[in-house]
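Researcher: Please generate the 3D structure of the following complex. Treat every line as part of one assembly.
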Amino acid sequence: MQVSGVTSGALFDPPSGSIRQVLGVPGGARFGSPIVSGLDNAWISPDGKSAVTLAAGQVSGIRIQADGGYSTTPWGPAPDKFKAVWSRDGKAAVGIYPQEDGTAAFQVWRVEQSSVDGPIPITLVYASIRSLAVRARTSEIFAAVQDANAGGLYSVAFSGNSSQLNSQIGLEALALDTVDTLLYGFTSTGNTLLTFNTATDSLPVAMPAQVSTEVTCPCSLAPSTDGGHLALAYAATDQLLVYETATANPPAVILLEGRPEGLDAYGSAGLFTLALRRQDAASALLLDVKSGSVYFVPASPPAN
Amino acid sequence: MRALHSIALFLLAGVGSLSAQVIQFRVQSSGSVFAVPNAGTLTMAAPARGQTAEVTVSAFYAGAKAASILKTELLGTSDYALGSTATPTLQPTDIYSFPVRYTASTANATQALLVVTYRETGGDIATAGFGISGTAPQVVATYSLPSDNNARTLASGGQLALPPVPVYTPAQATVTLNNTGSATATITGITASGSVFDLINLPLLPLTIDPARSISFNVRFQPTDPGSLAGTVQVNGPGSPFVFAVTGSAYAAQLSYTLVPDTGTPTAVTANSTLTFPSTLVGQQASLRLRLANQTPSSFTLSSISLSDSTNFQLPTLPVFPLILASGASLDVQANFVPGKGGIFNSQLRIGNDSILLTGAGLSSALDFSVVGPQGETLIAPGGTIPFPITAVGTIGTANVVIRNKTSAPVTLTAWSLANDRSAFAVTGTPQFPLTLQPSQSANFSVQFTPNTTGPFSGTVVFDTYSYTLVASATSPSSIPNLTIAGAPASVTALQQLPLSVSIDKVWPIDLVGDLTLSFDSGAFTIDPSVQFSTGGIKVSFKIPAGSLKATFANSSTLVRIQTGSVAGEIQVTPTLRTASSLDVGPVSASVLRLTVAPAAPTLFSIGLTTTGGVYLVQVTGISTPRSLGHAHLKFAPTGKIPFGTTDFTVDLTAVSNAWFRTTTSNSYGGLFTVSIPVSLTIPTSLATTALTLADVFKSITMDVDNSLGVSAPLTLTVQ
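Model: Done. Output below.
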């Protein structure tokens, strides 16, 4: 039996260029000491235990130890326009970037391995890829592609083979549920949120939507870590929508103080990190969908 | 009778012993009575030469017996006369009176002795008496002419002859009145007759002229028509009025003068008149053209044309002299005004015997810059200083400036600029530039001095070539705005994030900056590090722009959020306020915002169940603002698949709680905690071989936690 503190997760803190633990809970949280510093960017896994980092032109994989230390897996030089996407279970990260001919290539890091696969070229045009969702369990990437001739939903194997699952929908954002079975997608065609059952390859089912017809993307779509909620943010208005995945209820509308630029599942159930176009200087924002509140994590953290 | 006189003691020759004072003298003159001691002197001033002064002398017998007056004598010239020769016998206190007259045959002082011979009963013959000084004023006039300033005698009935002058040309003489007599002369009036004669430089009348003193005045002759003219001047003084004749003659001008403008109608000008040039900038030139015409029936020879000041005035186109002008002929003369410096200049333009005064104002600049104050406008010299009143920080000092075109031509200013010291000066209210000012037209603008710190300030405002130094001084602010921190109730709860705003109750003309600083006073004797502003840390800066009541924080927001943390205590938000130049305008301590986070029973956030190495851990996270825990209460809901013993457990957390909250590490988490309680299952032997999951044993686990203030709401974990 013991009493200890509360740590709600880890975040990349752009002002300090570091990955830091967040001590406390939303409403009473603050940044802890840096775990990894000197970073230009970082993509942290949903479980908060790993990260893909960009520093001094190099991409690396970071595994955060329980004692606050970390181990590094080098990926190599950072390609231009590189960005990383994590699988929901935090077991694999995919880095994607454009090649000289405009098509995309990607690298795959299976966290439990000390090497990185790739680069693996694919035929999809980088600029047409709107969103990715990674499923480590099946070693595949779901890609939402907007292209006049080849648009649709694709499945790309970690080997590089790709197949088009659906060509009729203009998906803007993708997200897998916590058990990597349901694939959520938001399409700007009709402003509709769709659900695919990847286990059965069922036709997409439209979820109840309360989306303005003026919605414009980029959009962000993320399920909470417990899978109970699905949050959709889009850049057109100062609000976001939160669906209860277990019900057919209309989404809850949460008003924000600025235009959302992105969100991702974070820490415990019902929490998301949130990026707003207008926010208090350099503070991080945490969205608690259960209370419908947005909390800041104070910026410019003290050293401890 | 005009006789008031000083009395001086002296020994009277021939008069008897001074010890015989039984006869004493009193004199009555012009209604006043005064004593004259034996052997003293009585002055008798005649009103004028030939006139008489008279007094009554009273001889008073001061003895105790009787005194017989044997003889009364007046020893002196015939100017003195005694009015009585009586020989009375005087009893004690008797008075014997008799008149004494002085008729001045000369203005010089003369002397006489009054001697009274008497014999007191039983005594010897004795004398008593005093001296008499007879005086008289005499006014003698002289005059002088400016041509030579020689003094000339001027007798009453005489004549003062002034020299001939052209019409409208004044002639004058100085008349001096000298008192050559021995008494003070009184002048009661000086008047002149004749319309062309007047008196100038007259002193205030009546006046007195002491002996050997003089006064002067002028007699002026101002003819308007040709011919001889006469008048009189009368001086009312001692004796008969002093009257003399004044004569003068005037002759007609031989030349007529006309001012001929470049455009417009010519204007006749008389000799001895004044022609005024327009105000002219130094180094520039103004001109006029004067036409001379011979208006006599015969030719006229003009000997010369000249200027008394040929430095600031010029005659550029003169003919050769002598110049013969035929009857009716004319000559145009151009006169230029070329001032060499600023100021008023005069020059006599002499044309033969005539003279015309040229005058003009030299301007050192085309524009006048003046500062308008309570006493009116004060001219600022070019390159000079525009002063400001001493101004307190937080207030505005203003200098109102007037630009005035003082020339006769339009002046255009193209631009202005301001060289500023610490941005304290600002020019306001300037008209549209380029700015053209017509002659005599003015424009106004203001220079505002808005200091943001104390001390001297200087700057320069430039309008084309006109440069002026701005000089000001600032003192400490005399009144400061009140600051308010708003947005939060006095009583708050833990884990709140509250927006705060800062405002002042009156606008200031300069930017104010300040800080909000958080401090935390905890009853748990620890500092909650999560009590921070959203911008990070315990200090946030703000700015209140000039003219605004609201403070702005980072990202131009008027709100800054604070986090109340997780520990019971008082959060203090202390503001400071200063100018942008760091001049403190505090204190503002009265505006400290105090937020109290009350101690409360625990609140649980989450419950979980983990297993490590076959050991189950029930974990709850929560908050206890007093940073203490009492007990955990666990209630297991059995599935009924297997027999279950005790389902409710109470775990004393006091020791582990105290141990945790006393560590330095725990300070980082405030009142937040995770309680981990290991759960061991003892499976009955009969079921030990059966593969069981926890879900076979429990449906759920419900847990709450208490502290000294109460118990938390329970959380339930469904076991799956």
